[in-house]
Amino acid sequence: MQYSFQIYQRSFQQPLQTHHGLWSIRQGLIVSLADDSGHIGRGEIAPLAWFGSETWEQAYHFCQHLRQQLTQSQILSVPDDYPACQFGFGTAWEALTQNLVSTPAPPDICGLLPTGIQALSAASHLWEQGYRTFKWKIGVDAPEHEQSLFRQLMAALPQQALIRLDANGGLTHKAAQGWLQLCDLVADHRTIEYLEQPLPPNQFSDMLLLSQQFETPLALDESVATLSQLQQCYRQGWKGIFVIKPAICGYPDRLRQFCQTHPIDAVFSSVFESDIGRQACLKLAAELSNPRRAIGFGVRHWLSPDE
């Protein structure tokens, strides 16, 4: 196969605030594979280092040092510590070699709200656009302030709305308990779908206990960034929700095999990839994500047009 790649960069319309800090620029690489007949398959490498993938610089140097002619074996033997590269080369390979047929329409899409008071106006705007499930990031301000805003958000949204809270592993055990107590209380008259990754990945046993102590479901996200982490948490007894970001999870065929052979409650989610990666992720989501849950790809309003 003839191999080439190119760099892309997109700015956020406004920086995304998470527990890990502000994110202003999405950088990635587009991989192209061409066979002797002129057919081309493209894939996207969209690293998210603070989430557990390789860095953008590592991905760039990996791509830069490959030869222009690659064999199938080389394409399918990217090291496991380069999961975003595995996804990019794996999806390019599938696009080149498989007769892609139409897939079922993906589930509903969850819209990502900004942090802080801006969530109130954004939620109303996204509701008008047809979103019915919303994600709001917490763990970026004092719990008392965020919980006050959360109550306002609950009052502002229609009764039919579903809410997901995402802490990005940024809560203390005490704060996580406080949020779960509040969610259980609010759940008497509103639907809180789940609290996502309240504690850091190295506190898995504590999250497992929390999942058994409260009614509000918990979801793993940073804890299951790669396929090996996903497999490990499953083996350790996680029965809750798995938020899977396919673009940094590794080769798509390996993820597909695991999800088809293990009965997990999977919610597929974005890493702010471009349209090439997004289409590959949506295909996997249509196949593998829990159809009763909205997928986490309501993020396009956050990014500027392709640059």
Write the SSE topology:
Blueprint: E1 2-18, E2 21-34, E3 40-45, H1 56-64, H2 72-75, H3 83-97, E4 109-112, H4 118-128, E5 133-137, H5 143-156, E6 162-166, H6 173-186, E7 192-196, H7 204-213, E8 218-220, H8 227-235, E9 241-244, H9 252-261, E10 265-268, H10 275-288, E11 295-298
Parallel strand pairs: 4-5, 4-11, 5-6, 6-7, 7-8, 8-9, 9-10
Antiparallel strand pairs: 1-2, 2-3
Write a structural description.
There is one protein chain. By secondary structure, this protein is of the alpha/beta class. It has 2 domains: 2-97, Enolase-like, N-terminal domain (Enolase-like, domain 1, 2-Layer Sandwich); 109-302, Alpha-Beta Barrel (TIM Barrel). The protein contains 10 helices and 11 strands. The chain has helices spanning 56-64, 72-75, 83-97, 118-128, 143-156, 173-186, 204-213, 227-235, 252-261, 275-288, and strands spanning 2-18, 21-34, 40-45, 109-112, 133-137, 162-166, 192-196, 218-220, 241-244, 265-268, 295-298. The strands form 2 sheets. The protein has an 8-stranded parallel beta sheet with strand order 10-9-8-7-6-5-4-11. Helix 4 (118-128) links the parallel strand 4 (109-112) and strand 5.
